[in-house]
Amino acid sequence: MTEKKIHVEVIPQLKDNYSYIIFSLKDKLAIIIDPAESKSIIKYIKKNNLKPGAILLTHHHKDHTAGVKKILDSFSCNVYSPNKDITETTHIIKHNDIIKFDNLCFKIFATPGHTLDHVIYHEYNNNILFSGDTLFRYGCGRVFEGTYKQMLSSLNIINELDDVTEVYCGHEYSLNNLNFLESVFKNNNHLILEKKILKNQIDRNGCTIPFNLGKEKDLNPFLSRKSPFYCSFMKEKKYNDLAMFTYLRDLKNSF
Ligand SMILES: [Fe+2]
């Protein structure tokens, strides 16, 4: 087994948000993702003697950015975001950019749909994805600013990433998302089994993050529809990918 070189700390914030701190165990340079609040982040950094290196933001919504200002009052570090209107931004990033902090290397993908400015950060040395509000476990973000077509192509970008990728998303919506899938795809053995696994995980520690992308490609029809049970559903309804996505997203909006 290879020695673990990095750690991702999951920081629950607000009602159901997640912020993250990723750092290499050797140099302790900390990269903070989407801080909604500052206190818990600052506390963790101080307690673990980390060196704040940068803040990465996925999109402009306040529940992903509101902690930035106070973090900057405590530490000075660069703020990477896709949107100059996020006032604390020091570096604007765009699709296909790569940003490196010692041995942490992030490739940026623009994933418009939830918002028009949305980006995700793929740390490709360790196969870790910070998916913000684009991909959730068993679901995807609500499409506020973009079109369904845009959101679907954004999710297709994630679908192309390696199955071993571990995903850290912006909210704890897993149980609700799985309940929704069960309400549409009734008596589906795969979903029933998954619910048992998920409930076990929630009972153990309340948090269902991170999750494996390969497994997600089998179970999450917003991300991929390759599983036989989704294929046959689409065939029956004569849906292509966009029609299936539209059908599910519309239903989920009122679930
Ligand atoms: Fe959002």
Q: Would you kindly provide a written description of the structure presented here, covering whatever features stand out?
A:
This protein is an alpha/beta fold. The chain has one domain: Ribonuclease Z/Hydroxyacylglutathione hydrolase-like (Metallo-beta-lactamase, Chain A, 4-Layer Sandwich), CATH 3.60.15.10. Helix content is 35%, strand content 25%. It has nine helices and 14 strands. It has helices spanning 39-47, 62-65, 68-74, 148-159, 174-184, 189-205, 213-219, 228-237, 241-253; strands spanning 6-13, 17-24, 29-33, 51-56, 78-81, 91-92, 98-101, 104-110, 119-123, 128-132, 135-136, 139-140, 166-169, 211-212. The protein has a six-stranded mixed β-sheet, covered by helices on one side. Strands 7-8-9-10-13-14 form a six-stranded mixed β-sheet. The longest helix has 17 residues, at 189-205. Bound molecules: fe (ii) ion (FE2). Residues 59, 61, 114, 133 line the site of fe (ii) ion. The site of fe (ii) ion has 4 residues, from loops.
Describe how the helices and strands are arranged.
Layout: E1 6-13, E2 17-24, E3 29-33, H1 39-47, E4 51-56, H2 62-65, H3 68-74, E5 78-81, E6 91-92, E7 98-101, E8 104-110, E9 119-123, E10 128-132, E11 135-136, E12 139-140, H4 148-159, E13 166-169, H5 174-184, H6 189-205, E14 211-212, H7 213-219, H8 228-237, H9 241-253
Parallel strand pairs: 3-4, 4-5, 5-6, 10-13
Antiparallel strand pairs: 1-2, 2-3, 7-8, 8-9, 9-10, 11-12, 13-14
Helix pairs in contact: 5-6
The structure holds fe (ii) ion.
